[in-house]
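subagent[fold] <- orchestrator: predict structure for attached chain, return tokens only, no commentary.
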Amino acid sequence: MDILCFFTGKKSYIVIAVTVGLLYVLQAVLNISLRLYLTCSGGTETIFNNVTIEEELKNLTDERDELVQKLEQYDMQLTGLRREKDELQTKLNLFDHYLKQNWIYFSGSFYYISTTEKSWQSSRDDCLGRGADLIIINSKEENVQPFFSSKFV
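subagent[fold] -> orchestrator:
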């Protein structure tokens, strides 16, 4: 049986966490550098081409707010990806369950083909016991499939 590998996304979670952490570290380094520059130069009113401390603080605060907003967006995306991963894992488990019981997958549906000859009602009861229902194949495409024509005809 072929193994279908899914990207679990753990690497992307780590990249997001490291990126946000690095942004916080960068902000702290910039704040410390600015403080040292102001302390060493003796200037407390203007920095970098007459930009006031209040303006620089406002810029840093706005930048921090943008980073927090992006972090919240990444968190929502992460939650959505986790939900999608869980749904796909559930579908994969169901697919694997049916394949292990010799069901055949065709065109979005699973088929169980029994070689035991039974009455219509007994066959239907067997199908219902498997969580399925007895079908009549009216589709030319289904009738000409290799698993219908070569195995059981």
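orchestrator: received. Logging for downstream: The first helix runs from residue 10 to 41. Confidence is low (pLDDT under 50) at residues 1-7, 148-153.
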